[in-house]
Specification:
205 residues; alpha/beta; Rossmann fold; 2 domains; five-stranded parallel β-sheet; 9 helices
Length: 205
């Protein structure tokens, strides 16, 4: 055991949906919540399209071949994740070498994203049971999780401060690492707000 009693919880993409679910289970242990283009705060058309009965079998059959192809992986990452930047060679290497092992995870991840957006009790349809500080970040060039989903975060967490980082895609870890470190550091020292009656605020830079 690490002996950590309170901590800042950070979740990116599907991990953002996981973080939002976790914070409701252990709210007293989470000093602040940081969401990076989180799933679960709206429906994601790309994931839903890949799950359609007519396309699902095609996607599943072609996925092992795509994941094993360096050019295909590089093109997909550049287009959908890294905002036109070539992904790091070691990332491409890990994906192509483990292509067969990643198929099941990709399938379940897509299913989870679709379900998170469609559920009647989805986060964007209700208030999350957490009144601590919440910060959410989107890139205005995000092609995976639409930046419009920030409004879902504001509905779920009225105390949230939402930032749109201009020129960024879906991956702040590689695109704005220093800014991300500063954001998480600042969030970890933030005081808890009085209650969730505060209205959300939108900032951009």
């Amino acid at each position: 055991m690490l002996g950590v009693e309170r901590f800042t919880l950070v979740g990116h993409s599907l991990g953002g949906a996981v973080a939002a679910a976790l914070v409701e289970l252990i709210p007293s242990q989470v000093s602040s919540l940081v969401l990076l283009a989180p799933a679960g705060f709206g429906r994601i058309p790309l994931a839903e399209a890949a799950s359609l009965p007519g396309l699902r079998n095609v996607v599943q059959a072609s996925l092992p071949l795509v994941l094993a192809n360096r050019r295909a992986v590089t093109a997909a990452f550049s287009r959908m994740v890294t905002n036109g930047e070539t992904p790091e060679p070691d990332v491409v290497e890990r994906i192509t070498k483990r292509a067969g092992e990643l198929v099941a995870g990709a399938r379940e991840g897509t299913r989870a994203v679709v379900e998170a957006g469609r559920r009647t009790d989805a986060f964007y349809r209700r208030r999350i049971d957490y009144d601590g500080p919440v910060v959410a970040v989107w890139g205005d060039h995000d092609r995976l999780v639409p930046v419009a989903h920030r409004h879902g975060v504001e509905r779920a967490c009225p105390q949230a401060r939402v930032q749109v980082w201009y020129g960024m895609g879906h991956n702040p870890v590689t695109e704005r690492f220093d800014d991300l470190l500063a954001l998480v550091g600042k969030s970890s020292t933030a005081a808890r707000p009085a209650r969730r009656k505060r209205s959300g605020a939108l900032t951009a830079f």
